[in-house]
Design brief:
Blueprint: H1 8-13, H2 16-26, E1 30-31, E2 33-38, E3 44-49, E4 53-57, E5 60-66, H3 74-82, E6 84-89, H4 95-100, H5 111-115, E7 119-122, E8 125-130, E9 135-147, E10 152-164, E11 184-186, E12 190-192
Antiparallel strand pairs: 1-11, 2-3, 2-6, 4-5, 5-10, 6-9, 7-8, 9-10, 11-12
Length: 211
């Protein structure tokens, strides 16, 4: 297998769309999540993100990255307005609908409605969940950090509610994502069906690798 090498000069001067696809995909598989929000008038918004990351487990925090606020960002505006949002795993049976939420709809349009997904609420959380998802997380906005390198924003939220289909929850708390046909995302438009290879024991310095 031959290798193609791109220098810093190559990256700076290459065709814009090629560079975008290259950098978005070379980092590998990422989770695909629908972030659900609502504004102060109860109008719902839904958008697919592949930048969700684990921040901490005790207490539980998750983060995600927002693009620069050079144009209206309804997800950001709604989170700042009501202080809550949801993250909902994307599964294979509605991946096309989830992808469609990335379209640039106007502020008065609900992606739930136009993309054929169903919102629902719990007593503990004012932001909308996605009924079709088997893994749903309710979060309370905690803090934001400007990434000065490119003006993107890292949003951090405290996990205050988790809903997981009982059939995919292992006895030790591990969520078997593949059992729910959860998809992974690469770049801006590619989706994959991951398969678990194994679960390994906790790595210790005094341990030995199996031969």
């Amino acid at each position: 297998m031959s290798t193609v090498t791109f220098s810093a000069h190559d990256l700076k001067h290459m065709e814009r769309n090629f560079r975008r696809e290259l950098i978005n995909s070379v980092a590998g598989f990422k989770s695909a999540n629908l972030i659900g929000t609502a504004d102060e008038n109860g109008r719902t918004n839904l958008a697919v993100f592949n930048s969700v990351v684990h921040v901490g487990a005790n207490p539980p925090y998750l983060g995600f990255v927002l693009r620069p606020l050079t144009v209206p960002r309804h997800t950001f505006d709604n989170i700042k307005a009501i202080g809550h949002y949801t993250m909902n795993a994307v599964h294979a049976d509605f991946v096309e609908k989830a992808h469609q939420t990335s379209a640039n709809y106007d502020e008065g349009t609900s992606e739930f409605e136009v993309c054929g997904l169903t919102p629902f609420y719990t007593k503990a959380h004012p932001a909308p969940y996605v009924t079709e998802s088997h893994i749903r997380i309710g979060l309370k906005f905690t803090e934001q950090h400007l990434i000065k390198a490119n003006n993107t924003i890292f949003m951090v939220g405290e996990v205050i509610e988790v809903m997981v289909d009982e059939s995919i929850l292992d006895e030790d708390g591990f969520v078997a994502l593949e059992a729910a046909n959860t998809v992974a995302s690469v770049g801006l438009d590619a989706y994959y069906q991951p398969k678990r290879l194994t679960r390994l024991p906790y790595a210790r310095a005094e341990g030995k690798l199996a031969q």
